[in-house]
Amino acid sequence: MTFSTAATLTIGGDLTVGRVGFGAMQLTGKQVWGEYPDHDGGIALLRAVVDAGVTFIDTADVYGPHSNELLIREALHPYPKELIIATKGGFVRGGYDYSTLDAVGNSNYLRQSARMSARRLGVDSIDLYYLHSGQATDVPFEEQVATLAALKDEGLIRHVGLSNVTVAQFQLAQSITSIDAVTALYNVGNRRGVDLLRAAEAGDAVFSPWHPISIQDGGDPERIAAALTPIAQKHDATVQQIALAWLLHRAHNTLPIPGTTSVDHLASNLRAAAIRLTEDEVTAITSLVPEAA
Questions:
Q1: Interval 17-22 mean pLDDT
Q2: Which of 34, 134, 216, 276 has the least C-beta neighbours within 10 A?
Q3: Is the pLDDT of residue 219 over 90?
């Protein structure tokens, strides 16, 4: 993977965004169900995101469901010219409990999902639309991707992305249409998505890592924190900022989307983009967790 200190990246050849985006999922109710309880606070935070210079916001129809997309529209529409919004479809949820979450790949359902997301967001064309899961079993995966490819041809979506997929699914999807972004779990403590990161880099796709500032995912947070603390002190930063800065340096195609409900936390996340780690520091952090091929 290519060491990077670039301030921007480009999605699909024409959407240039800053290296740190904003994940809006936390602006919902508990367990990502229902409306965000501090409605006015959510509006203010989203406006602060844009005012701070963030040019990429990530959401999904299942966040709420639907309320997250509607909140974004209420806060930011008409959207600034430079703002790119990504959303996702393919999950359904029947209630508050996570056990009601399921994946659907039916073509008409995916078409409806994309059209309704566009309506809720108030756009004619969605900048980046992810298939939210590769786990649907009602329709073959390649047919689900073909549906999104058709929606792209029709102009409803500009770029296709994939979330919750395997490397094999990513490569299969690439044979059907251009895949311009993928998401997976990858951070300082857990490198589960490393093969997908490598495949995305090789395939000229953007990679959005889940939980980008977390050090809790790998089961050894004390050791990770102990290793990052002296690096953080050297850069007058927090451990979480170093975790985020490492992702930005780790490969040229990483687009972390840390979420928060705090303006102060937002500012802290964005300051991580200005941290310049040395190659030795990046290598030391990388070596904390095995990255087997």
A1: 97
A2: 276
A3: no
Contacts of residue 139, defined as CB under 8 A and 6 or more positions apart, other chains included, come to 105, 106, 107
The Cα–Cα gap between 61 and 88 comes to 6
Question: Hey, what are 217's tokens?
Answer: 């995912």
What's the mean pLDDT when you consider all of the chain? Answer: 96
Token pair, residue 11, equals 């999605």
Is residue 81 exposed (0-12), middle (13-18) or buried (19+ Cβ within 10 Å)?
Answer: exposed
Instruction: Please state the pTM of the whole predicted model.
Output: 0.97
Looking at this protein, which amino acid is placed at residue 282? V
Q: Write the Ramachandran bin of 8: left for phi over 0, alpha for psi from -120 to 50, otherwise beta.
A: beta
Exposed, middle or buried by CB within 10 Å (0-12, 13-18, 19+), for 87? buried
Query: Counting beta carbons within 10 angstroms of the beta carbon of residue 181, is it exposed (0 to 12), middle (13 to 18) or buried (19 or more)?
Result: buried
Q: Which residue has the tokens 């999922």?
A: 25
Catalytic positions, please? Answer: 63
CA–CA distance, 227 with 17 (Å, rounded to integer)? 31
